[in-house]
Amino acid sequence: MTAITNIEDLKRIYERRVPRMFFDYCESGSWTEQTFRDNSSDFDDIRLRQRVAVDMSGRSTASQMIGQDVAMPVALAPVGLTGMQHADGEMKAARAAEKFGVPFTLSTMSINSIEDVAGFTDAPFWFQLYTMRDQDYVSRLIQRAKDANCSALVITLDLQILGQRHKDIKNGLSAPPKLTAKTIANLATKWGWGIEMLSAKRRDFGNIVGHVEGISDTSQLGAWTAEQFDPSLDWNKVAKLKEQWGGKVILKGILDAEDAKMALKVGADAIIVSNHGGRQLDGALSSIRALPSILDAVGDQIEVHLDSGIRSGQDVLKALAMGAKGTYIGRAFIYGLGAMGQQGVTEALNIIHRELDTTMALCGETNVNNLGRHNLLVPEGFEGRWQD
Fold first, then answer.
1. Got the DSSP string for 1-38?
2. Three-state DSSP state, 340
3. Does residue 85 contact residue 334 with C-beta atoms inside 8 Å?
4. Secondary structure of the chain in HEC code, one letter for each residue
5. Residues with active-site annotation
6. Tens of each residue's pLDDT in the chain, 388 residues
7. Pairwise CA distance, residues 301 & 200, whole Å
8. Phi, psi of 212 (to 5 degrees)
9. How far apart are CA 291 and CA 254, in angstroms?
10. Please, is 205 exposed, middle or buried when counting C-beta atoms within 10 Å of its C-beta (0-12, 13-18, 19+)?
11. Do 288 and 343 meet the contact criterion of CB atoms below 8 Å apart?
12. The pTM is what?
């Protein structure tokens, strides 16, 4: 077996192992995929300042995110359908995160349920909420997260209306997969994935099926979900959800300084600078380019995190040095999960940690909390020069 040295190595194994519809679901953006591509490539424009003759012993990547101790400021982002990338995917990713000492965030659209993950792990995890029209369902979902001892509620704000991802439509994406001739032909080549899925705890959406009146299996789920995302979500509703939760709240999907100020106003504990991995508004700025203006607006008053585009420990370092207090990986851990299950998620975290630690040392820093703009060379006009 070829040595695995970076996240791209995991991605190559993942692509070979997982059915095409689930690979495409992970590895795509909306419309032209401009923002999806920019999320990663824009990190390349930032250069690192090498420093030498610094005592590099006793290094530490330990930090905190929303007051929680973390082995490094990297959380596993919420990713829908994780349990179709690998059997019991959410449970295995959560356990890998727990053992490594970083937060795991469970998606509303997960395959394994809140209760499944809580029963498989000891450390409290975070729960990501999509706001639905069915307010009774949302209330019960929040209560289930409380009962499972989730330590933070991550409210996603940028999916009131679903962005179109061409590949998902063409693949007839569903969980379980729709058995067209094309799908069957592809599944026949993924026998390792298929054998494991036969013994999976679940193969449908565990947070929804059986918890919504009239939804007892996935055949009824598509229409319900398409109608359920709440287009009327506004800041008043966000404030009410925060009050209903009563604990730590992180608002995900902030890409504009004015929205960051509103998040501060409703009393969020943290915001995630995010464009949903380029899966919603194609043509939006990458998260790393949007970060500076948001930090200028609210940076000292609220904890600012970043997701979308991180594929290495160097990307993590650049985001932290730009001013973010925490980062999230989505695709990077999915590559590992799809490639090798729980071991693959651990491998992805190890790769990112090793890259972060080594890069930090070569930049002359021994503590991740001391990273700052002094470690970077940021090009003039990095955020873009736009007319008023």
1. -----SHHHHHHHHHHHS-HHHHHHHS--STT-HHHHH
2. helix
3. yes
4. CCCCCCHHHHHHHHHHHCCHHHHHHHCCCCCCCHHHHHHHHHHHHCEECCCCCCCCCCCECCEEECCEEECCCEEECCCCCHHHHCCCHHHHHHHHHHHHCCCEEECCCCCCCHHHHHHHCCCCCEEEECCECCHHHHHHHHHHHHHCCCCEEEEECCCCCCCCCHHHHHHCCCCCCCCCHHHHHHHCCCHHHHHHHHCCCCCCCCCCCCCECCECCHHHHHHHHHHHECCCCCHHHHHHHHHHHCCCEEEEEECCHHHHHHHHHCCCCEEEECCHHHCCCCCCCCHHHHHHHHHHHHCCCCEEEECCCCCCHHHHHHHHHHCCCEEEECHHHHHHHHHHHHHHHHHHHHHHHHHHHHHHHHCCCCEHHHCCHHHEECCCCCCCCCCC
5. 276
6. 679 999 999 999 999 999 999 999 999 999 999 999 999 999 999 999 999 999 999 999 999 999 999 999 999 999 999 999 999 999 999 999 999 999 999 999 999 999 999 999 999 999 999 999 999 999 999 999 999 999 999 999 999 998 999 999 899 888 778 888 999 999 999 999 999 999 999 999 999 988 988 776 666 676 677 789 999 999 999 999 999 999 999 999 999 999 999 999 999 999 999 999 999 999 999 999 999 999 999 989 999 999 999 999 999 999 999 999 999 999 999 999 999 999 999 999 999 999 999 999 999 999 999 999 999 999 999 999 998 8
7. 44
8. -125, 135
9. 10
10. buried
11. no
12. 0.97
Token pair for residue 383? 């955020």
The amino acid at 25: Y
Domains of the chain in start order, with CATH, are: 7-365 (3.20.20.70)
Query: What single-letter amino acid sits at 39?
Result: N
Going by their DSSP bridges, the two strands 68-70 and 105-106 should be labelled as unpaired
For 307, the token pair is 């997701």
Residue 157 and residue 276 in contact, taking contact as beta carbons nearer than 8 Å: no
Tokens describing residue 372: 């700052």
Q: Which amino acid is at 231?
A: P
What is the spatial distance between Cα 73 and Cα 75, in angstroms, rounded to a whole number?
A: 7
